[in-house]
Amino acid sequence: MRTLSITVTAVDLKDDIRVPRARFRIDRSLPQIVSTVAGEAGLKPVVGDSPHGIGWPFLAQTAESNLHFLTRLAAELDATCKPAGGALVVQRRGEGKTAAGDALTPPRITPQRLTDWSWSYRGRTVYRSAEAEWTETGTGVTHKVKRARARR
Fold first, then answer.
1. Helix, strand, or coil here: 58?
2. CA distances (Å), 17 to each of 1, 13, 104, 117, in order?
3. Contact between residue 128 and residue 148 where contact means Cβ atoms under 8 Å apart
4. What are phi and psi of 83, to 5 degrees?
5. Which domains does the chain have, with CATH numbers?
6. Which residues pair with 103 in a beta bridge?
7. Is 66 helix (H, G, I), strand (E, B) or coil?
8. By C-alpha distance, which of 11, 65, 64 is closest to 40?
9. For the segment 101-118, what is each residue's pLDDT rounded down to a tens digit?
10. Would the pTM count as exceeding 0.70?
């Protein structure tokens, strides 16, 4: 059996981005809001092309963190919001582009390209499991696997 190993590092979400806030915004665009929130969290703001021109005449943020606020706005736009690689990224789902506008093509990984694999877990102990999902491009069949973390 061949296995694909993916290495990830979680973003530290213990910072100011998760502190509940109450404030409002008048006549603000999505890039302006993302820029403000990213600046407060020490991240670079990145907004994809599709949601870039969207704005609101009035927005209320009531007792919710900046991250939750942006995630809520992104959900309304069928987009996603996440801190990644030192940036706060807001990008519409399924566009096939990176937030920078580059084409996003899935890599083709054949068994000949796999040489070794390993699993390690470092960091926060809050998470009890990991889940991966992938779709076979030839058949369109989606696979999902979930593994629980071993107890220490």
1. strand
2. 42, 7, 28, 35
3. yes
4. -80, 130
5. 17-92 (3.55.50.10)
6. 97
7. helix
8. 65
9. 677 777 776 766 666 655
10. no
